[in-house]
Amino acid sequence: MGIFHEMRESEGEIVIVYTYFPLFYIAFAAALAGVFLLHPSYAPHITAAFALFIALFIVDFWRPLRETRQAVKSGRCKELSGSKFSFKNPLRVVIDKEAGEK
């Protein structure tokens, strides 16, 4: 279980739900607005905070995104639903374990 996603494994499948993927876009928009609208002396602090957020985001999403990419390429992805822009209908990936073992 990561900070920004949920990953559940059962005997036959892996379910990955990217629950907080839209948070990246909101943080990016807030950082951009902060840099351009606030006093210029705040820009380095906002940029550094956003860079730390991006680093945390990348570290947390590295494994599930890699696994999703490999599953889609190999044809093990059973279901890909939702939207990466929605909190109500988050991106959900269901990966079949048995198809990869054949």
Q: Report the end-to-end length measured between terminal Cα atoms.
A: 27 Å
Shape: elongated
C-alpha-based Rg, rounded: 17 Å
Structural category is alpha+beta
Topology:
Layout: E1 6-9, E2 13-18, H1 21-37, H2 43-74, E3 77-81, E4 91-96, H3 98-101
Helix pairs in contact: 1-2
Describe this structure in words.
The protein has 102 residues and is an alpha+beta fold. Helix content is 52%, strand content 21%. It has helices at 21-37, 43-74, 98-101, and strands at residues 6-9, 13-18, 77-81, 91-96. It has a four-stranded antiparallel sheet. Strand 1 (6-9) and strand 2 (13-18) form a beta hairpin. Helix 1 runs antiparallel to helix 2 (43-74).
